[in-house]
Design a protein that fits this description.
It is built from no helices and 8 strands. It has 77 residues and is mostly beta strands. Strand 6 and strand 7 (62-66) form a beta hairpin. The chain starts with a strand and ends with a strand.
C-alpha cells in the first residue's frame, strides 16, 4: 500500500485507513536504516532498507520515509 505526498511515494504499513499525514522538512541521512512498509513486490511489511535520502512523514503517529523507489540502495536482512 502506498500513497503520494507532495509527488513522493509514501511507504506505509498495510493500514486500511490513513489519516493525519504530516510531512516533515528534514531529510533522512545517507545510510540511515529505517523500518518501512510495502513499496514494491520485492519488499514485505517490516523490511528494513538503507536509503540514499528522503523525507520523513508521520502517518497516524508513526514515522515513515518518503522516497522514490530508485533511491533504495540496499535491503537489510
Amino acid at each position: 500500500m502506498s500513497i503520494n505526498v507532495g509527488g513522493y511515494k509514501l511507504l506505509v504499513k498495510e493500514i486500511e485507513e490513513i489519516k493525519n499525514v504530516e510531512v516533515f522538512d528534514d531529510t533522512a541521512n545517507v545510510g540511515e536504516v529505517l523500518k518501512v512498509g510495502n513499496m514494491v513486490e520485492n519488499y514485505k511489511v517490516g523490511d528494513k532498507v538503507v536509503f540514499s535520502g528522503g523525507i520523513r512523514v508521520s502517518v497516524d503517529g508513526e514515522e515513515y520515509v518518503v522516497v522514490d523507489e530508485y533511491e533504495v540502495i540496499m535491503l537489510i536482512e
